Amino acid sequence: MTRRAALGGLALALPAARLAAAQDSAPSLSALAAQKGILFGTAVGAGRPGTLTGMLSDPRMMAIVGRECGVIVAENEMKQYVIAAQPGKLAFERGDSIANWARDHGKKLRGHTLLWNHPKYTPAWLTERYQGAPREGLATWVRDYVGGVAAHYRGRVHSWDVVNETIDPDTGELCDSLFQQKLGFDAIRIAFEAAKEQGPDAQRVYNDYMSWGSGGAKHRAGVLRLLERFRREQVPVDALGLQSHIGVGDGDNATREREWRAFVDAVTDMGYRLLITEFDVNDRGAPADPARRDAEVAAVGKGYLDMMLSYRTLDHLLCWGLVDRYSWLQGFTPREDKLPQRPLPYDARYRPKPLRQAIADALIAAPSRAAA
Ligand code: 9MR
Q1: Domain ranges, ordered by start, for the chain
Q2: What CATH number is given for 27-365 in this structure?
Q3: pLDDT at 3 over 50
Q4: 186 to each of 134, 174, 189, how far by Cα in Å?
Q5: Is 243 in the pocket of ligand 1 (CB under 6 A)?
Protein backbone atom coordinates (compact mmCIF):
# COMPACT_ATOMS: atom_id res chain seq x y z
CA MET A 1 0.00 0.00 0.00
CA THR A 2 1.22 3.52 -0.70
CA ARG A 3 1.59 5.93 2.18
CA ARG A 4 -1.30 7.99 0.89
CA ALA A 5 -3.52 4.97 0.52
CA ALA A 6 -2.57 3.72 3.95
CA LEU A 7 -3.54 6.95 5.62
CA GLY A 8 -6.29 7.88 3.31
CA GLY A 9 -8.20 10.98 2.45
CA LEU A 10 -7.70 14.64 2.10
CA ALA A 11 -5.25 15.14 4.89
CA LEU A 12 -2.19 13.82 3.09
CA ALA A 13 -3.32 14.62 -0.42
CA LEU A 14 -3.18 18.39 -0.02
CA PRO A 15 -0.31 20.69 0.87
CA ALA A 16 -0.59 22.34 4.28
CA ALA A 17 -1.84 25.76 3.14
CA ARG A 18 -4.63 24.31 0.99
CA LEU A 19 -5.48 21.84 3.74
CA ALA A 20 -5.83 24.70 6.21
CA ALA A 21 -8.08 26.61 3.83
CA ALA A 22 -10.18 23.52 3.15
CA GLN A 23 -10.62 22.90 6.83
CA ASP A 24 -11.52 26.49 7.64
CA SER A 25 -14.69 26.00 5.66
CA ALA A 26 -15.20 22.38 6.74
CA PRO A 27 -17.48 21.61 9.66
CA SER A 28 -15.76 22.08 13.00
CA LEU A 29 -14.90 19.10 15.17
CA SER A 30 -17.49 20.37 17.62
CA ALA A 31 -20.17 20.40 14.92
CA LEU A 32 -19.26 16.89 13.77
CA ALA A 33 -19.31 15.69 17.38
CA ALA A 34 -22.63 17.40 18.13
CA GLN A 35 -24.26 15.54 15.24
CA LYS A 36 -23.60 12.36 17.21
CA GLY A 37 -24.47 13.73 20.64
CA ILE A 38 -20.80 14.12 21.63
CA LEU A 39 -19.10 17.19 23.11
CA PHE A 40 -15.70 17.93 21.61
CA GLY A 41 -13.16 20.17 23.31
CA THR A 42 -9.76 20.77 24.80
CA ALA A 43 -7.82 21.69 27.89
CA VAL A 44 -6.81 25.35 28.03
CA GLY A 45 -4.02 26.67 30.21
CA ALA A 46 -3.80 30.19 31.60
CA GLY A 47 -0.10 30.00 32.40
CA ARG A 48 2.56 32.56 31.58
CA PRO A 49 2.44 33.74 27.94
CA GLY A 50 4.88 31.85 25.76
CA THR A 51 5.12 28.82 28.03
CA LEU A 52 3.65 25.35 27.46
CA THR A 53 0.58 26.34 29.49
CA GLY A 54 0.11 29.87 28.14
CA MET A 55 -2.71 29.21 25.68
CA LEU A 56 -5.27 31.68 26.98
CA SER A 57 -3.04 34.63 26.13
CA ASP A 58 -2.44 33.41 22.55
CA PRO A 59 -5.17 34.78 20.24
CA ARG A 60 -4.34 32.37 17.38
CA MET A 61 -4.61 29.42 19.71
CA MET A 62 -7.86 30.61 21.21
CA ALA A 63 -9.33 31.29 17.75
CA ILE A 64 -8.86 27.59 17.02
CA VAL A 65 -10.44 26.67 20.34
CA GLY A 66 -13.33 29.02 19.57
CA ARG A 67 -13.87 27.44 16.16
CA GLU A 68 -13.35 23.77 16.98
CA CYS A 69 -14.63 23.28 20.54
CA GLY A 70 -17.91 23.03 22.38
CA VAL A 71 -16.30 22.51 25.78
CA ILE A 72 -13.08 23.47 27.54
CA VAL A 73 -11.39 22.32 30.74
CA ALA A 74 -8.79 24.14 32.82
CA GLU A 75 -5.42 22.44 32.38
CA ASN A 76 -4.13 23.43 35.85
CA GLU A 77 -6.10 26.43 37.10
CA MET A 78 -8.68 24.56 39.19
CA LYS A 79 -6.18 22.26 40.88
CA GLN A 80 -5.70 22.30 44.63
CA TYR A 81 -2.15 23.60 44.33
CA VAL A 82 -3.54 26.71 42.61
CA ILE A 83 -6.83 27.31 44.45
CA ALA A 84 -5.52 26.31 47.91
CA ALA A 85 -1.96 27.58 47.42
CA GLN A 86 -2.27 29.68 50.60
CA PRO A 87 -3.87 28.59 53.87
CA GLY A 88 -7.17 30.17 54.84
CA LYS A 89 -8.31 31.39 51.42
CA LEU A 90 -9.46 29.99 48.12
CA ALA A 91 -7.87 31.69 45.10
CA PHE A 92 -10.27 31.49 42.17
CA GLU A 93 -8.76 34.16 39.91
CA ARG A 94 -6.94 31.78 37.55
CA GLY A 95 -9.78 29.28 37.38
CA ASP A 96 -12.21 32.11 36.79
CA SER A 97 -10.16 33.36 33.84
CA ILE A 98 -10.85 30.04 32.10
CA ALA A 99 -14.48 29.92 33.27
CA ASN A 100 -15.06 33.47 32.03
CA TRP A 101 -13.60 32.69 28.62
CA ALA A 102 -15.96 29.72 28.34
CA ARG A 103 -18.93 31.87 29.36
CA ASP A 104 -17.99 34.71 26.98
CA HIS A 105 -17.61 32.32 24.05
CA GLY A 106 -20.64 30.13 24.72
CA LYS A 107 -18.62 27.02 25.60
CA LYS A 108 -19.37 24.41 28.19
CA LEU A 109 -16.90 23.97 31.04
CA ARG A 110 -15.46 20.85 32.68
CA GLY A 111 -13.75 21.10 36.05
CA HIS A 112 -10.40 19.45 36.81
CA THR A 113 -9.81 18.46 39.60
CA LEU A 114 -11.02 18.59 43.22
CA LEU A 115 -8.81 15.94 44.83
CA TRP A 116 -5.53 14.57 43.46
CA ASN A 117 -3.98 12.02 45.81
CA HIS A 118 -0.41 12.88 45.01
CA PRO A 119 2.17 14.40 47.36
CA LYS A 120 3.65 16.48 44.55
CA TYR A 121 0.34 18.20 43.87
CA THR A 122 -0.70 18.73 47.49
CA PRO A 123 0.08 22.19 48.93
CA ALA A 124 3.03 21.92 51.34
CA TRP A 125 1.28 23.94 54.05
CA LEU A 126 -1.55 21.40 54.12
CA THR A 127 0.85 18.54 54.81
CA GLU A 128 2.64 20.54 57.50
CA ARG A 129 -0.61 21.48 59.19
CA TYR A 130 -2.43 18.14 59.12
CA GLN A 131 0.25 15.44 59.06
CA GLY A 132 0.50 15.14 62.83
CA ALA A 133 -3.01 16.37 63.68
CA PRO A 134 -6.15 14.31 64.42
CA ARG A 135 -7.81 12.94 61.28
CA GLU A 136 -11.01 14.97 61.80
CA GLY A 137 -9.13 18.18 60.98
CA LEU A 138 -8.17 16.98 57.51
CA ALA A 139 -11.58 15.37 56.93
CA THR A 140 -13.23 18.72 57.61
CA TRP A 141 -10.74 20.50 55.36
CA VAL A 142 -11.42 18.14 52.44
CA ARG A 143 -15.19 18.53 52.87
CA ASP A 144 -14.97 22.33 53.07
CA TYR A 145 -12.47 22.67 50.24
CA VAL A 146 -14.26 20.40 47.76
CA GLY A 147 -17.63 21.83 48.74
CA GLY A 148 -16.32 25.39 48.48
CA VAL A 149 -14.91 24.92 44.99
CA ALA A 150 -17.97 23.00 43.77
CA ALA A 151 -20.21 25.77 45.14
CA HIS A 152 -18.12 28.50 43.50
CA TYR A 153 -18.49 26.87 40.08
CA ARG A 154 -22.06 25.65 40.60
CA GLY A 155 -24.10 26.19 37.46
CA ARG A 156 -20.93 26.77 35.41
CA VAL A 157 -19.03 23.47 35.57
CA HIS A 158 -21.32 20.78 34.16
CA SER A 159 -18.91 17.88 34.79
CA TRP A 160 -16.19 17.58 37.44
CA ASP A 161 -13.14 15.36 37.66
CA VAL A 162 -13.84 15.06 41.37
CA VAL A 163 -10.95 12.69 42.06
CA ASN A 164 -7.94 12.35 39.79
CA GLU A 165 -5.37 9.52 39.58
CA THR A 166 -5.77 7.87 42.96
CA ILE A 167 -4.60 4.38 41.95
CA ASP A 168 -0.88 3.62 42.05
CA PRO A 169 -0.11 2.05 38.64
CA ASP A 170 2.62 -0.17 40.11
CA THR A 171 0.54 -1.74 42.86
CA GLY A 172 -3.08 -1.14 41.88
CA GLU A 173 -3.68 0.15 45.42
CA LEU A 174 -4.67 3.63 46.57
CA CYS A 175 -1.79 6.09 46.17
CA ASP A 176 0.28 6.96 49.19
CA SER A 177 -0.49 10.57 50.05
CA LEU A 178 -1.35 12.78 52.99
CA PHE A 179 -5.05 12.13 52.33
CA GLN A 180 -4.56 8.37 52.07
CA GLN A 181 -2.40 8.17 55.20
CA LYS A 182 -4.81 10.14 57.35
CA LEU A 183 -8.18 9.22 55.89
CA GLY A 184 -7.78 6.24 53.56
CA PHE A 185 -10.77 5.67 51.28
CA ASP A 186 -12.79 8.19 53.33
CA ALA A 187 -10.93 11.06 51.64
CA ILE A 188 -12.32 9.94 48.30
CA ARG A 189 -15.79 9.31 49.68
CA ILE A 190 -15.89 12.74 51.32
CA ALA A 191 -14.79 14.41 48.09
CA PHE A 192 -17.58 12.84 46.02
CA GLU A 193 -20.18 13.50 48.72
CA ALA A 194 -19.16 17.16 49.12
CA ALA A 195 -19.16 17.64 45.33
CA LYS A 196 -22.68 16.24 45.20
CA GLU A 197 -23.89 18.38 48.08
CA GLN A 198 -22.55 21.67 46.72
CA GLY A 199 -22.87 21.05 42.98
CA PRO A 200 -25.70 18.55 42.66
CA ASP A 201 -26.27 19.18 38.94
CA ALA A 202 -22.70 18.51 37.82
CA GLN A 203 -21.63 15.08 36.61
CA ARG A 204 -19.12 13.46 39.00
CA VAL A 205 -16.19 11.72 37.35
CA TYR A 206 -13.30 9.58 38.56
CA ASN A 207 -10.43 10.40 36.15
CA ASP A 208 -7.30 8.29 35.58
CA TYR A 209 -4.61 7.43 33.02
CA MET A 210 -4.67 3.62 33.10
CA SER A 211 -3.35 2.65 29.69
CA TRP A 212 -4.27 -0.02 27.19
CA GLY A 213 -0.69 -1.33 26.95
CA SER A 214 0.33 -4.56 28.71
CA GLY A 215 2.09 -2.47 31.37
CA GLY A 216 -1.31 -1.13 32.42
CA ALA A 217 -2.80 -4.38 33.76
CA LYS A 218 -2.32 -3.68 37.49
CA HIS A 219 -3.51 -0.13 37.04
CA ARG A 220 -6.68 -1.22 35.24
CA ALA A 221 -7.39 -3.90 37.86
CA GLY A 222 -6.96 -1.34 40.63
CA VAL A 223 -9.32 1.11 38.93
CA LEU A 224 -11.94 -1.65 38.52
CA ARG A 225 -11.69 -2.50 42.23
CA LEU A 226 -12.13 1.18 43.08
CA LEU A 227 -15.17 1.51 40.81
CA GLU A 228 -16.67 -1.65 42.36
CA ARG A 229 -16.16 -0.21 45.81
CA PHE A 230 -17.89 3.03 44.80
CA ARG A 231 -20.95 1.02 43.82
CA ARG A 232 -20.82 -1.26 46.88
CA GLU A 233 -20.57 1.67 49.28
CA GLN A 234 -22.90 3.93 47.29
CA VAL A 235 -20.33 6.65 46.69
CA PRO A 236 -21.98 9.05 44.21
CA VAL A 237 -19.81 8.61 41.10
CA ASP A 238 -21.35 8.88 37.64
CA ALA A 239 -18.58 8.24 35.16
CA LEU A 240 -15.01 7.17 34.47
CA GLY A 241 -12.72 9.66 32.75
CA LEU A 242 -10.35 7.83 30.40
CA GLN A 243 -7.48 10.27 30.04
CA SER A 244 -6.29 8.56 26.85
CA HIS A 245 -2.69 9.71 26.68
CA ILE A 246 -1.92 7.09 24.08
CA GLY A 247 1.21 6.70 21.99
CA VAL A 248 2.75 5.30 18.85
CA GLY A 249 4.31 1.90 19.50
CA ASP A 250 2.41 1.18 22.72
CA GLY A 251 2.46 -2.56 22.16
CA ASP A 252 0.77 -5.16 20.02
CA ASN A 253 -2.51 -3.95 18.57
CA ALA A 254 -4.75 -7.00 18.87
CA THR A 255 -3.74 -7.81 22.45
CA ARG A 256 -4.03 -4.30 23.73
CA GLU A 257 -7.40 -3.83 22.08
CA ARG A 258 -8.76 -7.07 23.56
CA GLU A 259 -7.53 -6.22 27.06
CA TRP A 260 -8.71 -2.65 26.83
CA ARG A 261 -12.20 -3.61 25.66
CA ALA A 262 -12.50 -6.10 28.52
CA PHE A 263 -11.65 -3.29 30.93
CA VAL A 264 -14.07 -0.79 29.37
CA ASP A 265 -16.84 -3.40 29.18
CA ALA A 266 -16.42 -4.12 32.89
CA VAL A 267 -16.71 -0.39 33.62
CA THR A 268 -19.86 0.08 31.58
CA ASP A 269 -21.39 -3.13 33.03
CA MET A 270 -21.26 -1.40 36.40
CA GLY A 271 -23.37 1.41 34.96
CA TYR A 272 -20.70 4.10 34.62
CA ARG A 273 -20.74 6.54 31.74
CA LEU A 274 -17.45 7.21 29.93
CA LEU A 275 -15.52 10.29 28.87
CA ILE A 276 -12.28 10.76 26.98
CA THR A 277 -10.81 13.57 29.03
CA GLU A 278 -7.19 14.18 27.91
CA PHE A 279 -6.58 12.68 24.47
CA ASP A 280 -3.18 13.03 22.79
CA VAL A 281 -0.79 10.73 20.93
CA ASN A 282 2.81 10.60 22.16
CA ASP A 283 5.10 10.22 19.12
CA ARG A 284 8.30 9.11 20.87
CA GLY A 285 7.97 5.73 19.18
CA ALA A 286 7.71 7.20 15.66
CA PRO A 287 10.45 8.17 13.18
CA ALA A 288 11.79 11.72 12.85
CA ASP A 289 10.29 12.52 9.43
CA PRO A 290 7.28 14.76 10.21
CA ALA A 291 5.02 13.37 7.48
CA ARG A 292 5.58 9.78 8.60
CA ARG A 293 5.21 10.75 12.20
CA ASP A 294 1.97 12.59 11.59
CA ALA A 295 0.70 9.62 9.62
CA GLU A 296 1.47 7.17 12.42
CA VAL A 297 -0.01 9.46 15.06
CA ALA A 298 -3.18 9.83 12.98
CA ALA A 299 -3.47 6.09 12.36
CA VAL A 300 -3.03 5.20 16.03
CA GLY A 301 -5.41 7.96 17.07
CA LYS A 302 -8.06 6.88 14.57
CA GLY A 303 -7.88 3.24 15.69
CA TYR A 304 -8.28 4.22 19.32
CA LEU A 305 -11.12 6.69 18.69
CA ASP A 306 -13.01 4.29 16.43
CA MET A 307 -12.92 1.72 19.20
CA MET A 308 -13.89 4.15 21.96
CA LEU A 309 -16.58 6.07 20.08
CA SER A 310 -18.32 2.75 19.46
CA TYR A 311 -19.28 2.93 23.16
CA ARG A 312 -22.49 4.93 23.10
CA THR A 313 -22.20 5.90 26.74
CA LEU A 314 -19.07 7.89 25.87
CA ASP A 315 -20.24 11.42 25.19
CA HIS A 316 -17.21 13.71 25.73
CA LEU A 317 -14.00 13.82 23.70
CA LEU A 318 -11.46 16.32 25.01
CA CYS A 319 -7.88 16.66 23.81
CA TRP A 320 -5.14 17.76 26.19
CA GLY A 321 -4.40 20.81 24.06
CA LEU A 322 -4.98 21.37 20.35
CA VAL A 323 -1.69 22.85 19.11
CA ASP A 324 1.61 20.98 19.40
CA ARG A 325 3.54 23.92 20.81
CA TYR A 326 1.38 23.83 23.96
CA SER A 327 1.55 20.09 24.66
CA TRP A 328 2.70 19.02 28.12
CA LEU A 329 4.56 16.18 26.36
CA GLN A 330 7.20 18.61 25.07
CA GLY A 331 8.43 18.95 28.62
CA PHE A 332 7.40 15.62 30.12
CA THR A 333 8.54 13.01 27.60
CA PRO A 334 10.78 14.74 25.07
CA ARG A 335 11.86 12.66 22.09
CA GLU A 336 15.32 11.10 22.14
CA ASP A 337 16.24 12.97 18.94
CA LYS A 338 15.17 16.22 20.69
CA LEU A 339 12.71 17.09 17.90
CA PRO A 340 9.51 18.63 19.24
CA GLN A 341 6.67 16.17 19.69
CA ARG A 342 3.68 16.29 17.30
CA PRO A 343 0.93 14.77 19.48
CA LEU A 344 -2.03 17.11 18.82
CA PRO A 345 -4.37 17.91 15.89
CA TYR A 346 -2.65 21.23 14.97
CA ASP A 347 1.06 21.77 14.40
CA ALA A 348 3.23 24.39 16.09
CA ARG A 349 2.35 26.82 13.29
CA TYR A 350 -1.37 26.34 13.88
CA ARG A 351 -1.94 24.23 10.77
CA PRO A 352 -4.28 21.24 10.94
CA LYS A 353 -2.53 17.88 10.74
CA PRO A 354 -3.66 14.39 9.74
CA LEU A 355 -4.65 13.79 13.38
CA ARG A 356 -7.32 16.47 13.00
CA GLN A 357 -8.69 14.62 9.99
CA ALA A 358 -8.51 11.34 11.90
CA ILE A 359 -10.60 12.83 14.71
CA ALA A 360 -13.10 14.19 12.17
CA ASP A 361 -13.30 10.82 10.43
CA ALA A 362 -13.80 8.98 13.72
CA LEU A 363 -16.61 11.38 14.68
CA ILE A 364 -18.26 10.94 11.27
CA ALA A 365 -18.07 7.15 11.64
CA ALA A 366 -19.32 7.12 15.24
CA PRO A 367 -22.81 5.87 16.02
CA SER A 368 -25.22 8.47 17.33
CA ARG A 369 -25.60 8.69 21.09
CA ALA A 370 -29.31 9.46 20.80
CA ALA A 371 -30.36 6.05 22.05
CA ALA A 372 -27.65 5.66 24.73
O1 9MR B 1 -0.64 19.44 31.51
C2 9MR B 1 -0.50 19.59 32.92
C3 9MR B 1 0.83 20.21 33.27
O4 9MR B 1 0.90 21.53 32.77
C5 9MR B 1 1.03 20.21 34.78
O6 9MR B 1 2.34 20.64 35.09
C7 9MR B 1 0.81 18.81 35.36
C8 9MR B 1 0.87 18.82 36.88
O9 9MR B 1 -0.16 19.59 37.43
O10 9MR B 1 -0.47 18.34 34.96
C11 9MR B 1 -0.63 18.23 33.58
O12 9MR B 1 -1.92 17.71 33.31
C13 9MR B 1 -2.15 16.38 33.79
C14 9MR B 1 -3.58 16.32 34.27
O15 9MR B 1 -3.82 17.30 35.23
C16 9MR B 1 -3.91 14.94 34.84
N17 9MR B 1 -3.58 13.91 33.89
C18 9MR B 1 -2.27 13.95 33.29
C19 9MR B 1 -2.02 15.33 32.68
C20 9MR B 1 -0.68 15.39 31.98
O21 9MR B 1 0.35 15.18 32.91
Answers
A1: 27-365
A2: 3.20.20.80
A3: no
A4: 14, 12, 5
A5: yes
Q: 166: Cβ below 6 Å to ligand 1?
A: no
Cis check for the bond before 113: say yes or no (omega within 30 of 0): yes
pLDDT at 61 over 80: yes
Residue 199: pLDDT over 70 = yes
Segments of 226-272 assigned E as strands:
239-242, 245-247
Query: Would you call 120 helix, strand, or coil by DSSP?
Result: helix
d(CA 227, CA 201): 21
DSSP 282: E
* pLDDT score recorded for residue 6: 39
Probe residue for ligand 1, chosen from 76, 78, 332 as the CB with the greatest number of ligand atoms within 8 Å: 76
Which of 359, 366, 299, 305 minimizes the C-alpha distance to 7? Answer: 299
Segment 22-52, tens digit of pLDDT: 556 789 999 999 999 999 999 999 999 999 9
C-alpha to C-alpha distance for 78 and 95, rounded to whole angstroms: 5
Query: Residue by residue, what is the 3-state secondary structure of 138-206?
Result: HHHHHHHHHHHHHHHCCCCEEEEEEEECCECCCCCCECCCHHHHHHCHHHHHHHHHHHHHHCCCCEEEE
Higher pLDDT, 39 or 10: 39
Q: What is the mean pLDDT of residues 340-366?
A: 98
Q: Give the global pTM.
A: 0.93
Q: How far apart are CA 160 and CA 331, in angstroms?
A: 26
